[in-house]
Amino acid sequence: MNIQLSEHFTYKKLIKFTLPAIIMMVFTSIYGVVDGFFVSNYVGKTPFASLNLIMPFLMILGAIGFMFGTGGSAIITKTMGEGNNEKAKRLFSLFVYVMIICGIVIGILGIIFIRPIASMLGAKEEMLEYCVTYGRIILAALPFYMLQYAFQSFFSAAEKPQLGLVVTILSGLTNIILDTLFIAVFKWGLAGAAAATAISEFVGGFIPLVYFGRKNSSALKLTKTKFDGKALLRACTNGSSELMTNISTSIVNMLYNMQLMKYAGEDGISAYGVMMYVNLVFLAVFIGYSVGTASIIGYHYGAENHSELKSMLKKSFIIISIFSVFMLILAKLLAYPLAKLFVGYDEALFDLTLKGFSIFSFSFLFAGVSIFGSSFFTALNNGLISALISFLRTLIFQIAAVLILPIFFGINGIWASIVVAEFMSIIMTITLIIAMRKKYNYL
Length: 443
What we know:
The chain is mostly helical. It has one domain. It is built from 16 helices and no strands.
């Protein structure tokens, strides 16, 4: 039986509704992890470093889909809460069609300019060629990469999070199977990893298109629509925090790579790459929960149900606090086996990764609240506050930390930078939530 957005959410019902979105985000994050594992162990250290170097740029482009998904679903669910389901379908269709066009245009431009971009990021000679090869194959599937990100939010808005989970699992399994086949069996190297990911992104983006394009039992369907510049602007504004998060994270990753190249060379980039894979999967839990709850919050905001907003905020803080402690414990337990899994073939690289991860893992204790806080304001259609949280958390605090701390603590300062930045962001997020309580009546 489907859970309706209009219902009162107990802890059990909240977990049941958001769990598919959490698993969806985790599976999506596993794409890069699977590529990294196979490339590191079957192709080599230089291709692995190349993959980590170009990935932040590719994630920036894919994040445009996340922007339309989170920002657009906030508008869609608010419209549904106001009782205008037909308008919600037209808006949904508009956002999907615009994303497809953007994906095609940006993908073509990316393929053309990938070489100078990779060179600008610091890739040279053999590393540059690896970056270009991987980047061009991934960019060919960019429209589906963007759609896949967006549909993670749209499935929750359509009251069908379980279907989104099924699609994501199919896509994830496709990636794992093809990575094994293309890299371990056919020996296609980095190009094989890129092809496996591109095909899995096609699966993740195309299946929802078919589902929503036909008559279905969900709250949304692709229909005829008309251009609405105001709605598109609102979607971009509402989702700007999610776009900012991905862009900022990618920019900061590039800065980390530059600092690590300075303090530890190619090994530093590889060690950081392992931590980013774990970080990607762990933070996906917080992001998935936030995506899952955003539709609920947006609906009740549109319906002016303040008591349910209060309930959602209280329950979410408790759930995220439990998740945060669990993530820290799990990170400590998995540090050794994960480092061994990815870089166990190189003793010096393994030691560097293990030491860095022991410091880095404390960031999971603080990250969840800020991620949820940003999504919470997106769902309330307050893109400005949401973007402010993301901007400070993922860009300003991290840049300041990664530039200052290594001066005093060397490479350990680089590993500690994310922890300091997340701690500062949680204080700022709680402050903003308290400051805005009277406007939205959620406290």
